[in-house]
Design brief:
By secondary structure, the protein is an alpha/beta fold. 25% of the residues lie in helices and 21% in strands.
């Protein structure tokens, strides 16, 4: 059994985290490139972007409009700590914004920043901070009953993947599972 959704958001920190050639379902995956430390070659990013276009995978770049323009990304991912409104003046045809938030005030800010889709963290307990609070599926569904564009993120593992079918969202986002167990998670998604 698996939680089938319309969209799967894969957040990667390096293009080596994801072998795009393994994707077999078209128009279901969105890759968010969120590189904080190592800067990858622009030529490698161009090649990865080209592979994404061939597989009909949307490609977003985090917080860098220059890089998003340079590699002709599908859009920009605005992190929860990014409070700037500079991106509002950056409008292009077929270019969209995805935001990330942790609470209701950040969700409202992301809507004002022009984000069409918002990733909300933390759905489940996370391993890096087990004492921190998380929503759970029931609370997530109560808060976002009528908003299908709110996507759960955080603490999603192989073990709780099936329970995502109970969320009211059109998809879900993965970050740490993509890095930790890519073979297992990709065999479930692809």
């Amino acid at each position: 059994m698996f939680a089938y959704k319309n969209k799967y958001y894969l957040i990667i920190e390096s293009i080596k985290d994801l072998n795009i050639k393994n994707i077999k379902r078209y128009n279901k995956f969105i890759v968010i490139y969120r590189n904080k430390s190592k800067i990858e070659k622009t030529s490698d990013l161009h090649k990865f972007r080209k592979d994404c276009k061939i597989k009909k995978v949307k490609f977003f770049v985090a917080n860098d409009t220059n890089l998003a323009t340079l590699i002709k990304a599908d859009g920009l991912y605005i992190s929860s700590y990014n409070k700037s409104f500079k991106n509002l003046c950056f409008r292009r045809k077929n270019f969209s914004f995805i935001g990330s938030a942790h609470n209701y005030s950040e969700i409202e800010l992301k809507k004002k920043q022009g984000c069409e889709i918002i990733l909300v963290s933390k759905l489940f307990k996370v391993g890096y901070d087990p004492k921190s609070s998380y929503m759970g599926i029931t609370k997530f569904n109560k808060k976002f009953l009528f908003d299908k564009k709110i996507i759960p993120l955080g603490g999603i593992t192989i073990c709780n993947l099936n329970s995502l079918k109970n969320t009211n969202s059109e998809g879900f986002a993965l970050l740490s599972e993509v890095k930790k167990k890519p073979a297992k998670i990709f065999s479930r998604l692809f």
